[in-house]
Amino acid sequence: MPTREPEVALSIEHVKVRFGGLIALSDVTFSVRDGEIVGLIGPNGAGKTTAFNVFTGFLAPTQGEVRYRGTLLNGLAPHEIAALGLVRTFQRTSIFQNNSVFENLLIGLHRRGPSTLWDTLLALPREKAAEQEFADHAHEFLRFVGLERRAGEIAGTLPYGEQRLLGIALALAAQPSMLLLDEPVSGMNANETMRVMKLVETIRASGVTILLVEHDMPMVMQVSDRIIVLNYGRIIAEGPPAIIQSNPDVIRAYLGEGKKRA
Amino acid sequence: MKRVGPAVWVIVILTIPLWLPDQYILHILITTAIFIIAAMSLNLLLGYTGQLSLGHVAFFGIGAYASALTTLGFNVELFGGLRVVHEPWPAVVGFFVGTIAAGMSGYLIGRLSFKVRGAYFVIVTISFAEVTRLVALNWVELTQGPLALTNIPPYTLGLPGLGQVTLWNKTAYYYLVVAVGLMAYVIISRLVGSRIGRAMIALKENETLASSVGIDVTRYLVLAAVVSAAVAGSAGSLYAHYLKIIDPDIFLFIYTVTMVIMVITGGKGTLAGPVVGGIIFGFLPVILRDIAAPAVQWILYGALMILIVFVLPQGIVPALERWLAYWTQRRDARILLADNSKPGDGS
Question: What are phi and psi of A97, to 5 degrees?
């Protein structure tokens, strides 16, 4: 049997976003193949978070199409996109601060629930079995990110690094086939960053495609198969980390060149 | 301790009419219990989904009117000379019609206003209650307007072993209200303890994050609004058939405020909160009537409310839970210390 090219998971075609006179994204086109880890980088204000918001339905693109495994995402609500298996984390609050770590995971497991209103109101045995299953899954995900000992604690009281890990566990609980990570290691120390990098590799190994936005260059370069560089809302470079690192346009975008920018 | 507590409460609640000599107190108990049911329904929206419905009394009033009109029958002319005649039905049917009618209006309000959140939702709910009051006041042919719907018959229940029982006396009515209240409590507690309730809590805490893990925010808000409105409507029906008379004043803002006070002081987002707050603010006017001049009564009422909210901003029930947790921890620590100081000494 001939080896087939992996299927395209996420495809972005000519996406443009404008806020009044400001063009946040202009004619962005790229795709992420199944099983890849792709890094999306760029200086502050390049449009990375805007891109994430468009891909996950929190923002409607002015033009262009976003497809996930063939399904057109334009016009779908965020929960419908999550139901297709495309799940994201957020840069700042990616956890439910006032709930316990365990409750966070239970909330994240929402999509698994087959139980209906009647099951719940009549307290059918099915409901009890489903709840037990929820609890088992929640512990499983906590073990996966190494937070099982924190299960009973209020999420907002965890140290910062662990809050970020919980955010990833919460997103994983929603059963993604592709995960969008928005700056997963920002503000983390070297040890915590290492831990997340290993985690990202493990997640990919379990069959989840990953697109990540990150400012920590060594981390992105090491973990990504491919890098896409955004600057002022356009893609200025795309390719393997080694090539991106020596791309003069990218270096200029990050360091400037003393000239007035276009 | 945890197992015994509820059992004691159930026994106390079930035997009250047997040892309570004063019919007036029993009357207050019944109306308070009806308002506690309404407050529990408000708590589902306010405490669990975080939506402040300041028109909650509309659902209560719609339940009351729908139930009363179903039972009394009516004969009204709609546009174009079309007459709608409804023959009286049994009061029990009225109860279900009232509950369903309120639930349907909850669906309407849910769909309409969950497009607009926060302050706008509050305004829409207030307006809705005011509109329903004006309809009740001005559609005289149907509601008799300010002349009120009178002679609303009591429920007749077919009870096993007792045959057909008409609830004329207060004791019987008390048990009915307690039964409906327990049912509402069970429905709400099962709901909030489930996957559905977690979705509601999630959208209260962080709507964006909730939708990112696949929770259909609008769906669960509407579901909460429907269940909440239906429970409020059933309380309204109980109210109408108990007092046997209802007028458009049932839609007054003050009743919504009473429910909100019960929920906030008791502790929103806790199951026992509305019950505790409801008992305090249901009985407070009665107690104050005996000890203070009429003008002072409402000042004291307001002062106590402000005091509770000021000292216990989370409400009474969460504060009690914290104290209990604190004392258990202290006690456990003492036991631990005592054990450690006597090594090898069996208890």
Answer: -55, -40
Using CB atoms within 10 Å of the CB of residue A43, give its burial: 0 to 12 exposed, 13 to 18 middle, 19+ buried.
middle
Which chain B residue's Cα is nearest to A80? B214
Instruction: Pick from B204, B212, B215 the residue to mutate for testing the A interface (most A CBs within 10 Å).
Output: B212
Q: How far apart are CA A46 and CA A257, in angstroms?
A: 17
Residues B198, B184: Cα–Cα separation, whole Å: 19
Rounded-to-integer distance, Cα A236 and Cα A249, Å: 7
Complex confidence, ipTM: 0.87
Outline which parts of chain A fall under CATH 3.40.50.300: 1-85+178-257
Helix (H) or strand (E) holding A242: helix A241-245
pTM: 0.86
Helix axes B316-341, B273-291, angle to 10 degrees: 110
Distance CA B148, CA B137 (A): 9
In tens, the pLDDT along A1-54 reads 555 667 888 999 999 998 888 888 888 999 999 999 999 998 888 888 899 999
pLDDT at residue A256 is higher than 50: yes
Distance CA A183, CA A191 (A): 16
Domains in chain B: boundaries: 20-314
Residue type for B226, please? V
Query: For position B347, what pLDDT does the model report?
Result: 42
Alpha-carbon distance A73 to A60, whole Å? 10
Please name the amino acid found at residue B137: L
Q: How many CB atoms lie within 10 A of CB A121?
A: 16
Place of tokens 């307007």: B145
Query: Rounded to the nearest 5°, which phi and psi values hold at B106?
Result: -65, -40
Question: A157: distance to nearest CA of chain B, Å?
Answer: 16
**A110 touching B (Cβ < 8 Å):** yes
Which of A80, A130, A174 lies nearest to residue B213, judging by beta carbons?
A174
pLDDT of res. B98: 94
Residues of B whose CB is below 8 A from A155? none
A72 close to A48: Cβ distance less than 8 angstroms: no
Q: Does B29 touch chain A (CB under 8 A)?
A: no
Q: Is residue A260 pLDDT above 70, yes or no?
A: no
Here the tokens at position A194 are 């290492």
Nearest to B214 by CA among A113, A204, A70: A113
User: What are the tens digits of pLDDT across the range B132-182?
Assistant: 999 999 888 788 888 888 888 888 777 777 777 777 788 888 999 999 999
| A174 inside 8 A of chain B by CB | yes
Length of chain A equals 262
Overall fold of domain B20-314: ABC transporter involved in vitamin B12 uptake, BtuC (1.10.3470)
Tell which wins on pLDDT, A163 or B13: A163
Q: H-type helices in B45-90, by residue range?
A: 57-72
CATH class entry, domain A1-85+178-257: alpha beta
- Chain B residue numbers with beta carbons less than 8 Å from the beta carbon of A92 are none
Question: CB-based contact (8 Å) between A131 and chain B?
Answer: yes
